[in-house]
Amino acid sequence: MITQFYFLLIIGILAASFQDFYVRKTVKYIDYKLFYLWRMLITSICLGAILYFFDSSNVFKYLYVWNINNYFWAFITILTVFIFILTRYFLLENYETSYIIPIISSSSIILSLIIGYFILNEKIDKYKIIGSTFLLPGIFIFSGSK
């Protein structure tokens, strides 16, 4: 189980790293808004294929048991992802990948820690605090290089 976790973690890190590199290469040649539309189109086609080829009879029945709160949070999540992707594509189109991604990633870690503590009531241990104290100066040093 631990081996599977680390294997998937490494795959996820590599995929995220290369994905940002590929986005940067792509948005150098086409507008980031057009790239976003293409990405959504291809994602929709893939999702349609998955729903078609696999047993999708149970997928839509869960939407009927949702309450208004579920729809609200789903909408907020989709809106947040939409804003994140567009801003990231814009930044990758105009700035270096090695400059943008570390700042976004590190800031996201620290903000997730704060949100987790105050909103989700997650516990913060000394290791998370120590890690955050190393990340924070790193962000300022890194952003000062430009």
Automatic annotation (TrEMBL):
Gene3D superfamilies: 1.10.3730.20. InterPro entries: EamA_dom, EmrE-like. One of its GO terms (cellular component) is membrane. The chain crosses the membrane at residues 6-23, 35-54, 70-92, 99-120, 126-144. Coiled coil: none annotated. It comes from seawater metagenome. This is EamA-like transporter family. The keyword Membrane applies. The keyword Transcription regulation does not apply. Keywords: Membrane, Transmembrane, Transmembrane helix. Residues 6-143 form the EamA domain.
